[in-house]
Amino acid sequence: MTTVDERTRKRLSTGHEVALPLALSFAMGGVTVPARRSRLEAVLPAGLSSLAIAPGIGCVTLVGIQYHRVGGGDRGATGLEPYDEFAVIVPAVRGSRTSLPGAQLADGEIGGYVHWLPVTTDPSVALGREIWGYPKERAAITVTDGPDGVRTVVDGGRYGDESVRLEISRPRLEPTARDWTMASYTTKDGALLRTTARIRGDVALGLGPSIGTRLEVAPELAEELGLWRRPIARLYGSSVRAHLFEGERVDG
Fold this sequence. Notes:
Layout: E1 8-11, E2 17-20, E3 22-36, H1 37-43, E4 48-50, E5 57-70, E6 84-94, H2 104-107, E7 109-119, H3 122-132, E8 136-138, E9 140-146, E10 149-155, E11 164-169, E12 176-188, E13 191-207, E14 214-217, H4 219-225, E15 233-244, E16 248-250
Parallel strand pairs: 7-8, 7-12
Antiparallel strand pairs: 1-2, 3-5, 3-15, 4-6, 5-6, 6-7, 9-10, 10-11, 11-14, 12-13, 13-15, 13-16
């Protein structure tokens, strides 16, 4: 895998030039909710299967992100102006021969399929679509990292006006310093693409419902994915850093 010291440059249709791995810093707040696996299987590309958390039940993660830095800092690479983003991600497994809860992880590779990714600027749309095939589109999004937590409002995009309202309260306990690697899946030019992100920062993870957590989603989105409205997990991070690597084509 390419290291952060072995950078390549990509020029976007907007004229921006970014260096990969892309350096990012951001605040985020999100939840994971149960969803009907039959609905999730219908939106996943060939080669991926919804991560089962119970018979017939998968899950979806919804996250609001306020970027502080997007690239830049490298000679010849301009980076982008910070923007806000909302991600709808379906935890999925590639290569598993079973759909039994827990057993999928024994012979499969877990990642998150990016189902919807509205953002606030045109350059960020170009960045995501042209390099990784992320399903980005412009929408009116406000992500606020305030003293009470992270609040996200999405107004517009494919699911219409006032499509999402998500509030994640600031945790009572101090977040834990974390360093982990995760993979996302997209489709680009007809192929399944896996992209690795290395993430560091003080992040609070919690299981079960939380006082101060609020989630409202458009009926169209809830129906499409079979979403439940009661979170089973939540995450919060006010100062997170990541490196996003170039995607790799993988066999379904």
